[in-house]
Each structure stands twice: as structure tokens, then as C-alpha cells.
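To: structure subgroup
Subject: Chain for Friday's discussion

All,

I'm putting the inputs and outputs inline so they're searchable in the archive.
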Amino acid sequence: MYTGRTLIDKRDSFMETLEELQKILNDAPDGATHYDVDEDYCIEDSFCFSRGYWQPMGATVAMRSLADIHRIVDLMTFIGSVELESACVEMERNELLGKI
């Protein structure tokens, strides 16, 4: 639930690592559709899961869709695999050039 913090106060915490984003998804209770600035899980415009149970939603400053977070995780994973593949190709290329 809202604790008086604003998105500006928490701006840096919205730059989670891949592991942190994955944890948000893994920890989401059944039925949750959003994650708010106070680190509560919510059902859009309805209830928030806070202190171990669902309660009516109060005022929230910012919420993010869990579907959007899932897509970000997918894209970060894909980018990581492309970067790894690119690094392997570069390493192989350098090895071949070293043999010439």
C-alpha cells in the first residue's frame, strides 16, 4: 500500500537487474497482475497483496504490469544470449586470425 514515497524517490530502484526482475515474477502471488512502487503485488485497480493478504487498493503512485516485466525479462535474456554468441564468434575469429 502507499507509504508516501514517490516514483522520483524510488527512481533508481526501477532499474533492476535481470535476477531482480525474475524474483519479482517468481514471488508474485496467484492472481497478481501488477507490481507497485511500494513493492506490493496488485490486481489492477482492485486489491494489493500486502503483509501476507489481499486488501483493497489505496492510492498508488506507480504500478508496473507483471506482463511487461515478463517481456523485459525475455528481452534481457535474449540480448544476453546474443551478446554471448557474439563474444564466442569474436573469440573464434581471433583464434583463426592468430593461426594465419
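Points worth raising on Friday:
Residues 11-99 form one domain.
Residues 66-99 form the longest helix (34 residues).

D.
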